[in-house]
Amino acid sequence: MSNELRNFLALTYDELEELNLKAKEQRRNRVAIDNIQEERIKYLTDEKRIKAVTVLFSDLEGRLHMLDYDKKFLVKSWDNLTFDGSSIRGFTAQRESDLRLGIDWSAFYWAPADVLGVGKVLVFGEVIDKGGQPYSADIRGVLKGYAESLSKKKGYTLNAANEIEGFLLREPTQSGIITKAASLNTSTPAATIIPCPAIRCAHSSTPRRKCSVPWASKTRRTIRK
Fold this sequence. Notes:
Elements: H1 13-28, H2 33-46, E1 52-58, E2 64-70, H3 71-77, E3 81-84, E4 98-109, H4 113-116, E5 120-128, H5 139-154, E6 169-172, E7 177-180, E8 191-194
Parallel strand pairs: 1-5
Antiparallel strand pairs: 1-2, 3-4, 4-5, 6-7, 7-8
């Protein structure tokens, strides 16, 4: 069947911006979740061009996991979704693998069709344990719960955002650790050997103490002797 015969949702970037900013404003104004839930379910029901809903959640290490659901199935069974927790590192053992997945209707997003594909929308899920409580390994859920408690108890608003950082990877060597770092300056060595006792790491039992190795400038992301 050709794509011309399929009527899938494919919004322009202006339309995406308008819809996502409206959803963001609802979160900022703390619109009642029941009202948002009713609005989102009605939207999914009425918008015939949407064929699938991608539900996202993060694991202990912050990796993003995505589960695709048929839209009609999700609309009918959104409050009874389950998944295999043993397949996620750091979640449950195989003998107690089933976990529930709630829907955070306020975290509903429209993504570019040229990236995600046509006919799809995104929504974040909240992992729930067998007792019906937020799952302790769902890092996003833990952060959200903490933010809500600060808002109720002290009136605080917690602003959180992704931060892109460089990574230092240490490998054991006979004389210490080889630290590999991406450097913006090609004249600077990307790997430098430093003595293991300088810092506590997985390859040394030396207690933590002030490191005698001066750090290079933050922009270069490397270590000098």
